[in-house]
Amino acid sequence: MLAFVGLFIVTSWSLVKQDILGLIWPSLHGPLPLTDPFKILANISAIALIFGTWVL
After folding, report:
1. Do the Cβ atoms of 54 and 3 come closer than 8 Å?
2. Contact 48, 9 (CB under 8 A)
């Protein structure tokens, strides 16, 4: 369940940052570095989702 919450947070932030704020500041529209906190949360949530699916 926490994996879905984490992925929802990351997806919502990506929508706001890249699609809404990216229209105002074009430099925000691009790939995230691996050290970005939201990228780390996305990777951890994705691993948790895959692990949870595997356990079932």
Report:
1. no
2. no
pLDDT higher than threshold 80 for residue 20: yes
Q: Which two tokens stand for residue 32?
A: 């995230």
Report the distance separating Cα 29 and Cα 23, nearest Å: 8
Mean pLDDT over 18-24 rounds to 87
Q: What are the C-alpha distances in Å from 17 to residues 8, 12, 33, 48, 55?
A: 14, 9, 14, 24, 34
- Could you report the per-residue pLDDT of 37-54, keeping only the tens digit for each? 999 999 999 999 999 999
d(CA 4, CA 10): 10
d(CA 44, CA 4): 11
At 35 the pLDDT is 93
